[in-house]
Specification:
- The protein contains 4 helices and no strands.
- By secondary structure, the protein is an all-alpha fold.
- It has one domain.
- Helix 2 packs across helix 4 and helix 3 packs antiparallel against helix 4.
- It is elongated, with a radius of gyration of 17 Å.
Length: 82
């Protein structure tokens, strides 16, 4: 969610999104490491394609998640809900 979408939510909806969007850095780090391993294996076996592109996209999503959580925390702080 972007900042504009967060600002249009009601207080109850915003608190619900915050409750369901807690980051888990250990689990995220594990999955990023696993996906990097798949990328390295794919590069070693010279198999470029979906096996390489899918992990890259998933790594991008895992790295984007903390930024979305920061935007959510900022909106909560702005509304004095945290």
């Amino acid at each position: 969610m972007d900042q504009n979408a967060l600002s249009q939510l009601s207080n109850e909806e915003l608190l619900e999104v915050a409750k369901n969007n807690k980051p888990s850095p250990v689990l995220d780090a594990f999955f990023i490491g696993f996906l990097v391993g798949i990328l390295i294996y794919s590069a070693a076996k010279n198999t470029w394609g979906l096996v390489t592109l899918l992990p890259l996209y998933l790594i991008y999503l895992f790295l984007k998640k903390p930024k979305q959580y920061e935007a959510l925390k900022n909106e909560l702080k702005k509304r004095n809900l945290s």
